Amino acid sequence: MPVSRRSTFKAATALAALGASAATANAAEGKAGGEAIGAGVDSLGFDLGMPTPDRADKLYDALDFQQAVLCYLWAIPTVGMESARQMLVDNAGARSGDLVLVTGYREVSVMLGSNVTTPYVFAHIDLADRPVVFEYPEGATAGSLVDWWDRPLIDVGASAPDAGKGAVFILVGPGQEAPKDLPRGARVLRSRTRKVLLFSRGLDSDPRKVEEIFETARIYPYGQSPGQGRTRVLRFKPEGRLTSMKHPEGFAYWRRLVNALEQEPVEDRDRFFAAMLKQLGIESGRTFEPDARQRKILQKAAVVGEETAKAIAFNTRIPGMRYRADAQWEYLIPPSFSNEQDVPGGTLFEERTKFFYEVTGTSEAVLTRTPGAGSAYLVAYHDTNGAAFDGGRSYRLRVPADVPAKLFWSITLYDTDTRGLIQNRQQIVDKSSHQKLRKNPDGTIDIVMSPTAPAGLEKNWIPTTPGRSWYAYFRLFGPLEPYFDRSWGLPDIQATTS
Fold first, then answer.
1. Is 288 within the bounds of a domain?
2. Are residue 49 and residue 109 in the same domain, yes or no?
3. Which of 158, 384, 402, 429 is most buried, taking the most CB atoms under 10 A from its CB?
4. What is the 3-state secondary structure of the chain?
5. Which range of residues forms the domain containing residue 53?
C-alpha cells in the first residue's frame, strides 16, 4: 500500500487523542479532591481507577501500534537482506549457493543505493543443514560476506585480507560445529544467522570479464567434493518486470519479515522485540495468521514506520552527520556507525535504520579512514535552501577542480521513494571523472540536473523526471586526507532558472 499522508495523520491523531485523554485524567487527579478524582477518571473509561474493558482494549491497541512501529524500524536491516534474496529468486531463479551477475541500467535500477559503474555479483547462502564451503575467486573484485542482520563476516577481494588472490571460507551457522579437517588454507567464518549474503562487485566495467572471474568460484555443502557440481553464474531475466530490492510497503512488509526471521535464533539484544512481535502474531514456529485487529494495527504501523524511516534517513537527528557547516552535504554512513551495530552502552538503532533504509550490504572497506583506500560517500537530500529536489526543476553542482579522490569521483541520483536509480528515457543517472565532461577554465565542472538538456552542457547533464523527487550521492573512490580532515569542501546543489 502506498504511504499516504492522510492515513499517517489519522494514525498519529488517534495516538495523540489517547495521550491527550490520559493527560487530562492525570490533570484531573492533580487538581481534584479524593471524591472528585474518581468521577474525573470514570468519565475517561476508568471505574474507581480501574480501566473498563473498552478502555483496556483501546490502551492495548495503542500499545501494540507503538510497538509495531518500533518493530518496523528494528527490522529494516533483516527485511532488506530478505528483500535482496527475493530479488535474486524472482529475477534470476537463484537457489542457495547460486551466483547472480547484476549489471546495466535496467538491472541495477532495482537495487538500493547502487550505481552502474561496475557489475555486481550476489549470492544467498543457507547454512541450515550444515556448513558451506565458499571458494572465493582470484581477481579484481571487492565486496563482503554479511549475515542476515547485515553485519560483515569478512571482506573479500582486492581491499580484503585475501588481497584479490582468492580464498577458501568455511561458513558455519549458529549451533553448528566447525569441521576439524579443513581444506588447506581455509578460514572458518562463524555466522550468528542461518542465512548469509555475498555482495561483491567486479572492478572491471566489462561484465564478461567479471563473469569469467566468478565462473571459477565454488559454493557447496561441506563434505561434498567441489567437482560434484559447478556453481552457477546466473543473470536476470531479460524481459518483464523485475522485483525490487526495496522494503515492501504496507502489510507485505510483515510477511517479508516473517520470512527473514524463519528459523533464525533470537539474540539477547532482540528479546524484547521478539516479545512485541508475539502480540502481533509473529512468532518463530507459528504460522503467521493475524486476526482482523492485528492486521489493522500492522497495516497502519507499516505506514507510520516507513514515514519514520524516511525522517530518520532524510531529516536525520543523528549527531555529527553534516560534513561541513557551509553546505547541505551529509555523510551517508553515520560517523559513529559500527558494523557490529552494537557499541558500549547500547545498540545503534537510528543509525542502522538510516543506513539500511537506503542501502543493503556493508563492509569494513566503506568504514576505512585510511587515505587512498576504500571509498567515501556524501549525500545531499536538500538544495542550498533546504528544499527537496524537484524533478521538474533545474539544479547545478559545481564540482571543485581538486576532488581528493585517488581513483575517481562520481555523482549518482536516486529516486526518493524507491531508493534506486532515477528513471529517465535516456537511462543516464550519473556523471564521473572517468567521463569526458566539459570543464570550466578554472578546472571546475558544472553538473546539471534538470528535465531538459542545458545548451552547451549536454555532456554534463543528468535528466530528471517532473513529478518525482530525488537525492544525490557523491562518491570518492580512494578518498584522500583533505576529505577526512574536511579541509576540502563540496558546494551545495543549487536551483537555477535555466
1. no
2. no
3. 429
4. CCCCHHHHHHHHHHHHHHHHHHHHHHHHHHHCCHHHHHHHHHCCCEECCEECHHHHHHHHHHHHHHHHHHHHHHCHHHHHHHHHHHHHHHHHCCCCCCEEEECHHHHHCCCCCCCCCCCEEEEEEECCCCCEEEEECCCCEEEEEEECCCCEEEEEECCCCCCCCCEEEEEECCCCCCCCCCCCCCEEEECCCCEEEEEEEECCCCHHHHHHHHCCCEEEECCCCHHHCCCCEEECCCCCCCCCCCCCCCCHHHHHHHHHHCCCCCCHHHHHHHHHHHHCCCCCCCCCCCCHHHHHHHHHHHHHHHHHHHHHHHCCCCCCCECCCCCCCEECCCCCCCCCCEECCEECHHHHHHHHHHCCCCCCHHHCCCCCCCEEEEEECECCCCCEEECCCEEEEEECCCCCEEEEEEEEEEECCCCCECCCCCCCCEEECCCCCCCCCCCCEEEEEECCCCCCCHHHEEECCCCCEEEEEEEEEEECHHHHCCCCCCCCCEEECC
5. 7-64
Tell me: do 51 and 99 sit in the same domain. no
CATH number at residue 464: 2.60.120.600
CATH code at position 164: 2.60.40.1610
Count of domains for the chain: 3
Tens of pLDDT, residue by residue, the chain (498 residues) = 444 444 444 444 444 444 444 443 333 333 333 333 233 334 468 888 899 999 999 999 999 999 999 999 999 999 999 999 999 999 999 999 999 999 999 999 999 999 998 899 999 999 999 999 999 999 999 999 999 999 999 999 998 999 999 999 999 999 999 998 888 899 999 999 999 999 999 998 899 999 999 999 999 999 887 666 679 999 999 999 999 999 999 999 999 999 999 999 999 999 999 999 999 999 988 999 999 999 999 999 999 999 999 999 999 999 999 999 999 999 999 999 999 999 998 999 999 999 999 999 999 988 988 999 888 999 999 999 999 999 999 999 999 999 999 999 999 999 999 999 999 999 999 999 999 999 999 999 999 999 999 999 999 999 999 999 999 999 999 999 999 999 999 999 999 986
Do residues 362 and 477 share a domain?
A: yes
59, part of any domain: yes
